[in-house]
Structures are given as C-alpha cells and as structure tokens.
Amino acid sequence: MPRFCYLNGKLVSEKTAKVSVLDRGLLLGEGLFETMRAYNGQVFGIGRHLRRLQRGAEALGLRLPSATQLRTATSELLEANKLLRARVRMTVTSGPGGPGIIAPPDVEPTVVILAHPIEIPSDRIYRHGMRGVILPIRKFASAPLVGIKSISYGENLAGRRIAAEAGADEGIFLNHLGDLCEGTASNVFLYRYGELLTPDLESGCLPGITREVVLEVAPSEGLKVRETAVSPIDLAQAEEAFLTSSTRELMPLVEIDGLPIGSGIPGPIAARIHDAYRSVVIAECGSAD
After folding, report:
1. Taking CA atoms, which of 12, 28, 47, 248 is between 20 and 30 Å from 271?
2. Cα 260 to Cα 269: distance, rounded to the nearest angstrom
3. Tell me: the pLDDT tens digits for 105-158?
C-alpha cells in the first residue's frame, strides 16, 4: 500500500514528495520538529506539542500554519495511511530561501508530516531497564537553541553514537556547570530520599512533553517532585532513575557508566508513574495500546 505524507498543504505519496534543494532546512539546519505518538488513531498531547512548536517558531522567526490546520492534517494523514498506532514526525523549515544567512522575506515555510507504524521498543527495556553513560559533550544552558526542538541535531546524533559504541542504550549530557541536562532523546528523572528529581529548565534541557505530563501526575501518586540542579553523583546515588520520551514513554534507567543505579533493576516508583502516565493517555486517546 502506498504511504502518504503531508507536504505544504497536500497529502502526497512519500515516494514522489519533493523538497527544494534550496530549502534552508537542508542547507542550514534552520527548522523545528516534533515527534509524537498516536494511540487509537489519536496523537497524544498534540496540543502540548503544537504549543512547543509555536514557541520554537517565535524564537526562530518561522511562520507556521495554524494549530487547527496542523491538527487536521495530522488526523487526515493517519487516516490515509490507515494507522491507529503510529510515530508521527512534524517538521517545519524556513523554506526554499537559499543558503544566505538572512532568509528572503517572502519565502513560505516548508511543512512536512510523516506517519509510520511505530516500532515498539524491546520489552527488555521495560523489564530489565536501560544502560546509560555520561557523555563527554557538554550542553550550554545559554546557547541560542536551548529549549527549542531544532532540526539541527548534530550534538544528539554524536552523543547517541558515543553511547552505542560504549554498549549503552542512551547517553546523558551534562551542562556547562557539570550538572545533568538530558539524554540524547530523553529527559532524566531520579528518585532519592523520598523525592522525584529532574533537571530544571535552567539546566538547558528540552521541555519534554512526557516530562511535563510526569510532573503533573507524580503528585497524585503521593510523590514530592522537584525541578532542580541534579549532579551526576545524585544520579549515581539514586534509589531509582528513569528516562522519558514521547515515543517510548517511561524507561527505567538501571545503570550509569557501568555501575548499577539502586538495586540495578527497574523499581516500583517508575512503574507507578508509568501506569499513571498511561492512564492520562487512555483518558485522552481511548487506549494506550
């Protein structure tokens, strides 16, 4: 069956879709993206994702279609591809303005939405947990793209390669102060001394959508939650830790730099919060499958 994508207002075949060689996303990495997960044919948290996309667009000076247009396009794409469970990728660039530093004022943005069957992570990740390493690459909290989900993803790709070469599932960035920042494609949480801790936004981490939901549901599970500066020592001494992402939800982190975190197996706190998260998904989408 042919697979469709959304390109600049139309559903077209992925095989025939074309983006200009003058597109500034291709030439300069000027653009934004959101990766979302659809359950039961509904994109979870799409309003949250679109608000983050809008904030990024304002920061970069990009023009976006309306949120209603993007919602409708996403729904139509899922229907056209006959997908109930999907990974949805929305990309917006500043359009085919060429390689100049300043974009021409009359260039329309390029908008691409892809929807593919989601590859469910290995059950090993949830039953046995993930292995992490601290990366040698530092994030700078004052960098201009901090907090923006930019298509300029070189640091994250380099970090993931380093982690893979070390035999780990995820790499964790520190910021310029030596505190935890984020994973290459995840946010970090740890449980210690009765508190759930996560790096605050001042650390330079991306304001992840799953992170946002966890911060909302954890208090209802009787947990004290704090966004703060978190050191690598805090992580090493944690009772539990887990990572969050929109496509993989909550993933227990049981090892860092070859040493166990807590007991070295997934713990009950992460499981409770994951259940609470999936309850929110069910309430919004009708299913968490």
Report:
1. 47
2. 17
3. 899 999 999 999 998 877 888 999 999 999 999 999 999 999 999 999 999 999
Q: How far apart are CA 246 and CA 207, in angstroms?
A: 12
pLDDT digits (tens, 9 = 90+) for 169-184: 999 999 999 999 999 9
Q: Report the distance separating Cα 169 and Cα 282, nearest Å.
A: 28
The mean pLDDT of the chain is 97
Which part of the chain has CATH 3.20.10.10?
125-285
Q: Which backbone phi and psi does 192 adopt, to 5 degrees?
A: -155, 130
Continuous H helices in 101-231: 123-128, 154-165, 209-217
4-117 topology per CATH: D-amino Acid Aminotransferase; Chain A, domain 1 (3.30.470)
Give the CATH number of domain 125-285.
3.20.10.10
Alpha-carbon distance of 83 to 50, in angstroms, equals 21
pTM of the predicted model, to two decimals?
Answer: 0.96
**Is 53 buried (19+), middle (13-18) or exposed (0-12) by CB count in 10 A?**
buried
